[in-house]
Amino acid sequence: MFVARSIAADHRDLIHDVSFDFHGRRMATCSSDQSVKVWDKGENGEWHCTASWKTHSGSVWRVTWAHPEFGQVLASCSFDRTAAVWEEIVGESNDKLRGQSHWVKRTTLVDSRTSVTDVKFAPKHMGLMLATCSADGVVRIYEAPDVMNLSQWSLQHEISCKLSCSCISWNPSSSRAHAPMIAVGSDDGSPNILAKVQIYEYNENTRKYAKAETLMTVTDPVHDIAFAPNLGRSFHILAVATKDVRIFTLKPLRKELSTSSGMTKFEVQLVAQFDHHNSQVWRVSWNITGTVLASSGDDGCVRLWKANYMDNWKCTGILKGNGSPVNASSTQQGVFNAPVGTATSTLQNSVNGSSVGRNGKRYFPPPHRRLTSSKDTSNLSTTKCKSNYFLKKYYMCTLLASTV
């Protein structure tokens, strides 16, 4: 059961992204008003805005947290063609903010010539690394050689995807058997470009990222993409948000069947496809064990998916933007299930809505599109964008907290 709480976010324009930190006690939001806001959860469960500042000179598409072992660090990306890294510090003795925490910009990454559409920190076992993707079709991977000096970032890799990029996802697996891997989604509307999801893997021989797989069956614009946490599985699970929800497995083939260049070959299988949203799906997010998937779409609902004892994926819950539950059994339609893994547990990360339009230009949907975000079942958030045409636009976050 979920209880809804609304937060007056006080953003002056559309909210594009909501992101929880590792512990789910802090939340960051970003908006077309060019600002980022940080929220802290109080002992009474209420959320309070503890910081708000202008971050870019254009709409801010995404915001993301680094792992807390690197400190309180945020990254944001924008239509202004840049990504920025921010760190929370405590004012020094000669500072006007003595004893108070505040956010400072550590660096601005200016390599892109077009809108930077997504930004993601790498899994912590890879060190402090940051990936960005942009509408010019390039994924850039940066590294901070000294985690104590976040003003220095070096560009380590540039991956040319040859299609406009809308979203990226690191494979979180820390197994030595799995090379670092990143998935890239595209919303490119060109009729000449069919496959919209590409998988890149790090090659130890060449010390570069190379294309390992292309999901040929995904031909519609992709709005979000998410690898599931691995937790000992020998294969990978990837969720894709497009006109529906799709779940793929990528099973590495035996080494003798892999390419001579050392790249891993995968057996790719579509194991589940759901059109229950009956609309565009904007966000997908896995729980911490990779067994429950949350999705949000233009129908204004957050839907939860997990595999049953027969290893078939089913919709296990539907939540409206106001927190009220919907009978999942009454909405089962257009479902395709196939075996993959088992399922239990709670929600992680963010399921929040934003969209990149054709050729990197953002498409703004009708005012009542719901955008969602989740860290775990105690922090499942739905961001609602509303418009008051007689006064001014106002924007709210609705947090759905589990009571079980």
From TrEMBL:
Name residues in a coiled coil.
Answer: none
Give the UniProt keywords, A-Z. Answer: Cell cycle, Cell division, Centromere, Chromosome partition, Kinetochore, Lysosome, Mitosis, mRNA transport, Nuclear pore complex, Nucleus, Protein transport, Repeat, Translocation, Transport, WD repeat
What are its GO cellular component terms?
A: kinetochore; lysosomal membrane; nuclear pore outer ring; Seh1-associated complex
Positions annotated as WD repeat: 8-40, 274-306
State where it is primarily located: nucleus
- MF GO annotations: structural molecule activity
Highest rank taxon of the organism: Eukaryota
Which is a Pfam family this sequence falls into? Answer: WD40
List the subcellular locations: Chromosome, Centromere, Kinetochore; Lysosome membrane; Nucleus, Nuclear pore complex
Location of region: Disordered: 351-379
Checking InterPro entries in the record gives:
Sec13/Seh1_fam, WD40/YVTN_repeat-like_dom_sf, WD40_PAC1, WD40_repeat_dom_sf, WD40_rpt
Gene Ontology biological process terms in this record = cell division; cellular response to amino acid starvation; chromosome segregation; positive regulation of TORC1 signaling; protein transport
Per the similarity annotation, which family is this? Belongs to the WD repeat SEC13 family.
Provide the function of this protein: Component of the Nup107-160 subcomplex of the nuclear pore complex (NPC). The Nup107-160 subcomplex is required for the assembly of a functional NPC. The Nup107-160 subcomplex is also required for normal kinetochore microtubule attachment, mitotic progression and chromosome segregation. This subunit plays a role in recruitment of the Nup107-160 subcomplex to the kinetochore.
Q: What is this protein called?
A: Nucleoporin SEH1 isoform X2
User: What is the protein's species of origin?
Assistant: Thamnophis sirtalis
Name of the gene: SEH1L
